[in-house]
Amino acid sequence: MTNTVPDRPALEWMYSTMLLAKMADERAALEARKGLLQAALYPVRGLEAVCAAMGVAMTDQDQMVSSYRNLGDALSRRIPLRTIIAEAYGRMGGTSKGKGGTMHLTDTERGLVATTGIVGAGMPIAVGLGLAAQLDKSNRAVVVTFGDGATSIGSAHESFNLAALWKLPVVFVCQNNQWGEHTPLAGYAANPNLAERTAAYGMAAEAVDGFDPMATLHTIGRALDRARAGDGPSFVECRSYRLTGHSGLSDYSYVPKEELAAALERDPAPTFRTWLEQNGHVDSATLQNIEHAAEATVDEAFAFAQESPHPSQDELLLDVYASPEGVPTR
Predict the structure, then answer these.
(1) Looking at 230-305, which runs of residues are DSSP E strands?
(2) CA pair distance 226, 191, nearest whole angstrom
(3) Of 235, 239, 236, nearest to 161 (Cα)?
(4) How much is the average pLDDT of 22-31?
(5) 190 within a domain of the structure (yes/no)
(6) Mean pLDDT for the stretch of residues 238-243
(7) Which among 261, 223, 221 has a CA at the least distance from the CA of 241?
(8) Tally of domains within the chain
């Protein structure tokens, strides 16, 4: 992928997606504080640019494996926000009829094959999908997302090594928000340059400003090009900053105030808006229309989720076994 600016529809989609991630994230936290949403919430604030970039760089046939911090990843695969939110509420209108919840969000038709609540557990899954793509001789690439903390998990290093050895079409996207739950990156990694660490496995590894959607798009695009050309996996370290607590309602007073203030000065969606307008890519009136539409989409998504029914008892054993013969009698 060359370092060209995408066409206007793609830029507008990126801004809309960043807004939806930001607004839905903030709305979910508000609903949780009211007691209306009872679910494990892991905010994506700070990752909006990375998710929007992945959405443009990936194709419809590509596959993704995500983690519990997955709202933006799901939006990058064009999964309707209403079904994402309904899944968070545990309702039938969700992507998995409310039976997967926030930590197991999937939509295989749109390429989101799996999400996992276990830190680092998505990478071996992605390696398996990459092997399948290679054996199929397809042009399919696999993207797996994870936080910086996951790079210290044993399964991550096993995955890096095997993907590099077999030259699998996997792109490891590290959404580095600088915090492993409550521990800063420098507190658990002697070498905080994660791309440099991963390059030792024999794969291409690049670091990019994760608050810059254009730079992130081009970096991930190059990695996907390498994967499709048979040149093996890549590690992309998207350096951002977590703008909220680790989980939806957790305290984050431990975060240095000056660091958080500096990060908020570069809040991805507002910064991207300024760039779009100042460089003449999208006019102010269109940007306002996108913002109004995003607000309406978030309102509709939460209304849909709250009105959608809970799964019935008859649903409990459905979608669990591969065939009806495997369902135990009751």
Answers:
(1) 234-239
(2) 26
(3) 235
(4) 96
(5) yes
(6) 96
(7) 261
(8) 1
Cite the beta strand spans of the chain per DSSP E.
63-67, 112-116, 142-147, 170-176, 179-180, 183-184, 204-209, 234-239
Q: Which residues, other chains included, contact 306 with Cβ-Cβ below 8 Å and sequence gap of 6+?
A: 36, 89, 91
246 bridge partner residues: none
Residue 322 lies in a domain: no
Planar angle of CA 107, 68, 301, nearest 5 degrees: 55
- Residue with structure tokens 């911090």? 69
Q: CA 104 → CA 25, 94, 101, 211, 301, distances in Å?
A: 17, 11, 6, 26, 19
Q: Would you say 208 and 238 are in contact if contact means Cβ atoms under 8 Å apart?
A: yes
- Decide: 217 and 3 in contact? Cβ < 8 Å: no
- CB atoms under 10 Å from CB of 37, counted, come to 22
DSSP code of residue 204? E
Closest CA to 47 of 293, 317, 269, 275: 269
* Dihedral of the alpha carbons of 57, 59, 62, 65, in degrees to the nearest 10: 50
The C-alpha atoms of residue 67 and residue 58 are separated, in whole angstroms, by 18
pTM beyond 0.70, yes or no: yes
Each residue of 101-155: pLDDT tens digit? 999 999 999 999 999 999 999 999 999 999 999 999 999 999 999 999 999 999 9
| Domain with 213 in it | 8-307
Domain annotation covers residue 93: yes
Q: CATH number for the domain including 222?
A: 3.40.50.970
**Which tokens belong to 176?**
């580095």
Q: What are phi and psi of 85, to 5 degrees?
A: -70, -40
3-state SS, residue 162? helix
Tokens of 132: 């399948």
